């Protein structure tokens, strides 16, 4: 259901309300405005692979969703044209992950966004993954 939230741009809210993929993983978007976004996800049992660590595909999805929220916060429909990820250290069952997306640049219909996934530890932030996404706006540009 759609609801007004000053921290989440309307276009991003509309996209998220229809995003069953992200919702099914319990991804919680807490901020998405002006090309930046923050989302959280807890590593659950079904995200754990055969080595007892979080499957990289789920970490990618968290970063990808946060990227989507950032690049769609401007309004026009924007999709991912490409992305890459570096898995820095393993995430584990029960970890509360936070993804932070920052817009690096936009040129024409293209954009570049960096996303850092981290968890909080008693000694500070620990980086889990670094993601870079390339966006392409396919909706009408104002
Ligand atoms: C769009 C482009 C990247 C470039 O295509 P080019 O042809 O070089 O450039 P051009 O700018 O002319 O684009 C025209 C083309 O754009 C398409 N289109 C138009 N309207 C819409 C629409 N409303 N919705 C969707 N597509 C639309 C249509 O095909 C049209 O071609 P047509 O005119 O029909 O012949 C293409 O390669 C593509 O769709 N790749 C797959 C993208 C993909 O699946 N990504 C992964 C999923 S995203 C994700 O999971 C997370 C995420 C979400 C959001 C953000 C970040 C992360």
Automatic annotation (TrEMBL):
<dbReference type="InterPro" id="IPR052723">
    <property type="entry name" value="Acyl-CoA_thioesterase_PaaI"/>
</dbReference>
<dbReference type="InterPro" id="IPR011973">
    <property type="entry name" value="PaaD"/>
</dbReference>
<dbReference type="InterPro" id="IPR003736">
    <property type="entry name" value="PAAI_dom"/>
</dbReference>
<feature type="domain" description="Thioesterase">
    <location>
        <begin position="51"/>
        <end position="122"/>
    </location>
</feature>
<keyword id="KW-0378">Hydrolase</keyword>
<dbReference type="InterPro" id="IPR006683">
    <property type="entry name" value="Thioestr_dom"/>
</dbReference>
<dbReference type="GO" id="GO:0016289">
    <property type="term" value="F:acyl-CoA hydrolase activity"/>
</dbReference>
<protein>
    <submittedName>
        <fullName>Aromatic compound degradation protein PaaI</fullName>
    </submittedName>
</protein>
<dbReference type="Pfam" id="PF03061">
    <property type="entry name" value="4HBT"/>
</dbReference>
<dbReference type="InterPro" id="IPR029069">
    <property type="entry name" value="HotDog_dom_sf"/>
</dbReference>
<comment type="similarity">
    <text>Belongs to the thioesterase PaaI family.</text>
</comment>
């Amino acid at each position: 259901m759609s609801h007004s939230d000053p921290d989440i741009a309307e276009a991003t809210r509309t996209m998220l309300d229809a995003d069953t993929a992200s919702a099914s993983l319990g991804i919680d978007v807490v901020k998405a405005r002006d090309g930046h976004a923050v989302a959280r996800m807890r590593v659950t049992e079904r995200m754990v692979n055969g080595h007892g660590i979080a499957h990289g595909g789920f970490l990618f999805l968290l970063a990808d969703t946060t990227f989507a929220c950032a690049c769609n916060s401007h309004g026009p429909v924007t999709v991912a044209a490409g992305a890459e990820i570096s898995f820095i250290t393993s995430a584990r069952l029960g970890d509360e992950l936070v993804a932070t997306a920052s817009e690096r640049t936009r040129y024409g219909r293209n954009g570049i966004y960096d996303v850092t996934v981290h968890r909080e530890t008693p000694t500070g932030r620990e980086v889990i993954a670094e993601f870079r996404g390339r966006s392409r706006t396919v909706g009408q540009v104002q």
